[in-house]
Amino acid sequence: MKIKLSSVMVDDQAKALAFYTDILGFVKRQDVPIGKDRWLTVSSKKNIEIELLLEPLGFPPAIEFQKALFEAGIPANAFSVDSIVEEYDRLKEAGVEFTTPPTRAGSVMIAVFNDTCGNLIQIYQE
C-alpha cells in the first residue's frame, strides 16, 4: 500500500491552482470539469507520482472543519523541503504569510504558512 493521492480543501479552485503552482512551484497534473467544480490535482516537480487534489469546499461540515483547523492553528497538510530556511526566504519574498517562522520541533524544523485558500500548511525539514 502507498499514498498516491491526498487532498486539501480549498475555498476557490482557481485561486488555489495559482497559489500551488505559481507560488509553491507545483505542476498541474489533472484538470477535469465536474459540474461547477473540477477534479484538479497538482504534484511536486520532484515526485509527480503523488498528487494533491485541490478539493472544492461544498459540504457544510467540511467548511466548518476547515475553519476550525485554521482558527486552532492546525496545518491541513505538511510538505517536506530540503532547506527550510531557503524555502521560507523564497516564499516570504513571494509574499506568503507565515504564522510560524522556521522553528525547531524535536528532531525537525517546521514553518507554517497561510495558503490563501482557507488552510494553514506546514513545511518541514528532517
Protein described:
This protein is an alpha/beta fold. The chain has one domain (5-125): 2,3-Dihydroxybiphenyl 1,2-Dioxygenase, domain 1, CATH 3.10.180. It has three helices and eight strands. It has helices spanning 13-23, 60-72, 84-93, and strands at 5-10, 27-34, 37-44, 47-56, 77-80, 98-105, 108-114, 120-125. Strands 1-4-3-2 form a four-stranded mixed beta sheet. The mean pLDDT is 97.
What's the arrangement of secondary structure elements?
Layout (H helix, E strand, L loop, with lengths): L4 E6 L2 H11 L3 E8 L2 E8 L2 E10 L3 H13 L4 E4 L3 H10 L4 E8 L2 E7 L5 E6 L1
Parallel strand pairs: 1-4, 5-8
Antiparallel strand pairs: 2-3, 3-4, 6-7, 7-8
The CATH H-level homologous superfamily:
2,3-Dihydroxybiphenyl 1,2-Dioxygenase, domain 1
Structural class: alpha/beta
End-to-end gap = 23 Å
Calculate Rg over CA atoms: 14 Å
At CATH level 3, the topology is: 2,3-Dihydroxybiphenyl 1,2-Dioxygenase, domain 1
CATH class: Alpha Beta
Overall pLDDT score: 97
Spatial strand order of the main sheet: 1-4-3-2
Tell me, briefly, the overall form.
globular
Q: How many separate domains make up the residues?
A: 1
Strand content: over 45%
CATH architecture: Roll
Q: Which sheet architecture does the biggest sheet show?
A: 4 strands, mixed
Number of helices: 3
